[in-house]
Amino acid sequence: MSITTRADFARLPIKWIQSGRVAVFDSRVGDEPRNRAQQNSSIAALRLFVSLCVLADYYTGQVKTTYPQLIALSGLSRPIVARALRRLEEEGLLKKSGKPIREGSILQLAGWEEQFHGKLPKTRLYDGSRDQLLVLQNFEFSALSLYALKVFLVICAFRDRRNYNIATINYKTIARLAGVPIHQIPMSINRLYHLELISYKQADYYEPGNTEQDRTNRYLVRGLGDRWPAFNPDRLSGKSNKPSKAKIAAARNFVAR
User: Fold this and answer.
1) Which residue among 185, 191, 239, 241 has its CA within the 20 to 30 Å range from the CA of 6?
2) Residue 173, class by beta-carbon neighbours within 10 Å (0-12 exposed, 13-18 middle, 19+ buried)?
3) Distance, CA of 60 to CA of 162 (rounded, Å)
């Protein structure tokens, strides 16, 4: 059995997210006024991108799929899936790697050759279904859904294996990379929390550079088997909480007296 079928997670290319390219999936183009059509196009493209990552071969990034499968998985109609595929191709995130075959098409996701990658909580997104990403389908066509989905991808892209798989990132950075207005980030975070896709903790106000606006800048993606570490200031600072030999000797002398 391959890792594609048994893993609880899917591979996520992250370089394009960390470089701020997710911001192009917006409700407007350039300085044009915001409009519903552009907003819905961006939501559909990102929903389909996540769907393709879930289907992709873990090692190669190839996706062998059909329209019926993509329609069921993403919850999008056939015309919307077709437009979303074109949008992903235009943004350089996807290309067709061969001619259509009887069983469907073979697609190639970009960024699979990169050394570092993130993870998507595949099992959590299915939420008990076998052929539909039920949680993903909760991102309906609305401005808040677009913001929340982009914030989710940024958080997934900044999970740090060296720091308990926690993403530590402030509002300003999220806003810049995701292209989300900073005042919309708290609502986006709450949306992800209520969908049980993330949990978060408040940052320490006494840490250098932290402000009240950055108070919720530690995030854990749910469904990847990770847990919050027990808070241990000495361990986090690199200090040992074991008493020194001098303290032990002093304590023994005190007891002896």
Assistant:
1) 191
2) middle
3) 25
- Work out the angle between the directed axes of helices 78-90 and 67-74 (0-180°, nearest 10): 90
| pLDDT attached to residue 5 | 44
Q: What does the alpha-carbon distance between residue 5 and residue 136 come to, in Å, rounded to a whole number?
A: 19
> Looking at the predicted structure, is the pLDDT value of residue 119 above 50?
yes
218-241 burial, b at 16+ Cβ within 10 Å, e below that, comes to bbbbbbbebeeeeeeeeeeeeeee
Query: Which candidate, 94, 118, 122, places its Cα nearest to that of 11?
Result: 118
State how far Cα 6 lies from the chain centre.
20
CA angle 146, 126, 152 (to 5 degrees): 30
User: pLDDT-derived band of residue 234, with 50, 70 and 90 as boundaries?
Assistant: very low
**DSSP E strands, the chain:** 10-13, 62-65, 94-96, 105-109, 117-120, 167-168, 198-201, 218-221
For residue 98, pLDDT over 80 is answered with no
Q: Give the per-residue pLDDT at 230.
A: 64
Q: Determine the Cα–Cα distance for residues 88 and 113; give it in Å rounded to an integer.
A: 18
Cite the DSSP H helix spans in 75-184: 78-90, 122-126, 143-157, 171-178
Model confidence at 240: pLDDT above 70: no
